[in-house]
Amino acid sequence: MTEAYIVDAVRTPIGKKNGGLSGVHPADLGAHVIKALVERTGIDPAGVDDVVFGCVDAIGGQAGNIARTSWLAAGYPEEVPGVTVDRQCGSSQQAVHFGAQAILSGTADLIVAGGVQNMSQIPIASAMVVGQQYGFDTPFGGSTGWTERYGDQEVSQFNGAELIADKWDISRDELERWALQSHERARTAIAEGRFDREIVPFGDVTTDEGPRETSLEKMAALKTLTDGGRLTAAVASQISDGASAVLLASPEAVERYGLTPRARIHHLSARGADPIFMLSAPIPATRYALEKTGLSIDDIDLVEINEAFAPVVLAWIKEIGADPAKVNVNGGAIALGHPLGATGTKLMATLLNELERTGGRYGLQTICEGGGTANATIIERL
């Protein structure tokens, strides 16, 4: 069986809402990381078999197959195709899965997999809002089959996060302590230059804009998102702008271009869970990945699990029995931001670099996704 290698992984700095990247066209954000990959690896762009990009809310500047428009905006050959993937928050992680699967099947040798999202320009759920303006149903309203199965239960990430906090008995204090740690870890990572190898500055934006100095006292003063709830804005991921990309290669492409692989795809899969809880699927996804590989959680040196909300991570830790010291060691989306379609390959870039920095072997990445699904990827440092 052939291998699918990770040759390089890059990302823009992550811009905060209405920050330094907010005015950049999404195709130009995507083009920026694509050009960085090509220039850093020295590949012939004409040799790329496909460009697979993740993006959510594909309207406006993100419509029309952003994978294709990003590649063309980078100035590369028209003969190379592109395709855009929407698996909600895990879209670019799924882009890696599709790219790796093409290589593993022998039908491709060189894939650019990544994602882009400008949430300042196109707010989350814009596609649903536009549909409603034209009188169309929402994904969860108007479907006879959906209503017969799930009734009129609220379907939202906020409700899902509250349900998780309640089911796993995670207190507001625990949530805020994790959020504070996320900011502290992120600020330390930036100060120590841990992101330097993965970040490709965009103009004057050279570092992540999200991390800030805060305190438990400041968090405790915030109002909860719902009456009687435990969630506040402090324990949720930040609205962000950015792009990221990974170059995947077969052994043949590695030899042809004289590349040096940095990691191999050890495992890739996706699982589903209750769509009303929505954000709990990283638990079964992780269990499935470990079962399929014969690894235990103790074999995993580092974990990147997207901090859509703090209860997602804390419930996962409780269920999987993971060591919190190995989880999101450089901070997570609460501090660094969550540019939806770009988050998957952003986290993979961070996971790859941190494995190299610490000498770890296996890294696990998992992301909760709208609709109650989750991807799980295990990479092995070479």
From TrEMBL:
EC category name: transferase
Top-level taxon in the UniProt lineage: Bacteria
Entries under SUPFAM superfamilies matching the protein: Thiolase-like (SSF53901)
Keyword terms of this UniProt record: Acyltransferase, Transferase
EC number assigned by the record: 2.3.1.16, 2.3.1.9
Ranges for domain Thiolase C-terminal: 260-381
Pfam families the record matches: Thiolase_C (PF02803), Thiolase_N (PF00108)
Entry's Gene Ontology molecular function annotations: acetyl-CoA C-acetyltransferase activity
Thiolase N-terminal domain residues: 5-250
Keyword Secreted among UniProt keywords: no
PANTHER family the UniProt entry points to: ACETYL-COA C-ACYLTRANSFERASE (PTHR43365:SF1), BLR7806 PROTEIN (PTHR43365)
Family: Belongs to the thiolase-like superfamily. Thiolase family.
UniProt protein name: 3-ketoacyl-CoA thiolase
Organism of derivation: Rhodococcus opacus
